[in-house]
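User: I'm putting together a small comparison set for a docking exercise, and I want a reference complex before I start. The sequence is below, and the ligand is inosinic acid. Could you produce the 3D structure with the ligand included, as structure tokens?
Assistant: Of course. I'll restate your input first, then give the structure tokens for the complex.
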Amino acid sequence: MTLECLIPREVVARRVAELAGEIGRASADVADLSVVVLLNGALIFAADLVRQLNVPLTMDTLAVASYEQGHSTGLVAFRSPLKLNPEGRDMLVVDDILDSGLTLRRVMDSLRSAGAARVRSCVLLDKAAPRHPEGLARADFTAFQVPDKFIVGYGLDADERYRNLPDVMALIR
Ligand code: IMP
Ligand code: MG
């Protein structure tokens, strides 16, 4: 098993700063942005992103899981409830990677059903992989496109390992 560097840390840092600017400009009219971070994968990305988001915001987390042992089950399990009521909120869901697109689709649908006024999505990575027919095609904000490989580092894991790697890497089995 080898690790191949896809996006070095300096490039990640520069792009995350730029993306925070894009989100800020697209949220100039928002009085209180409700940022929802999907755990565990988006933890490190979101920590860097929100510290550069120049918008009044609240932060909440949602623990979801769609992957079991490295393959998608097609099911998205909500392992924790939100602490803030989504009703009337302008929300930004932050995830690590868009793969089948099911996770973001399910989470965004459920926030809308709970009465959110607007729900947008932000991902670090958009994987060039086939989307599920019900999956979200693309996020509102994307930092990078990546090839259809298994990605680890900067928060992304393989069975909970490698989240601490500072670069975005491909795991070659
Ligand atoms: P989706 O529902 O298939 O779009 O998958 C999204 C979730 O699957 C992400 O939040 C990740 O946790 C996980 N995932 C998908 N692809 C990868 C990968 O290449 N490496 C690590 N996790 C991944
Ligand atoms: Mg995840």
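The first strand starts at residue 2 and ends at 7. The chain has a mean pLDDT of 93.
User: Thanks, that's exactly what I needed.
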